[in-house]
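Blinded run. Sample ID left blank on purpose so nobody reads anything into the name before looking at the predicted structure. Input follows.
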Amino acid sequence: MPRLDDSGSQLLHAGQNVQKRAGRFWQGFSDFALQDNVLEVAVGLILAAAFTTVVTSFVSEILLPVLSLLPFINRNFEEKFAVLRGGEHYSEGRRYNTIKMALDDGAVIMAYGTFLNKLFNFLGVGISLYTIAHVYTWVSKDSIIKNTVKCKFCRKRISEKAQRCVNCTSWQDGREE
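Blinded prediction complete.
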């Protein structure tokens, strides 16, 4: 039968072992999570999400309402849809005015206006980011946008400043012709 002193010392030793492992785990996690590149990526993702929200708001609340004033559109883009199969109460004389009305009646619809709205949002975010990259290049003289050309031999994209292709190792200045 184990003595009380033996089990107490084993318990104390086990507790110290768990404490060491937890300390090593926490140290490793903090080394990983607090690295410069991980923090930069986290901040970049947060800024990108905020930027996307602003551009989405601009497109859907400022740009699209103005575009919906054009005579051939005559309503908001988000409410543009085509009925693929009518519901119970659908007839040529009675059409659906909204997407909700069509879905409530059991119709199968193609909501192409929602797609156009998301496409405009994507283009707005892309053009805005491209503009910011150009302004950054103009201000700092450090280019974010890397211009590329096709290799003459393997036709893969490489940097326009490259002297040799990284894919097929051919010289780009005509030495091998």
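Unblinding after everyone has recorded impressions. The helical segments are 4-33, 36-67, 99-104, 112-140.
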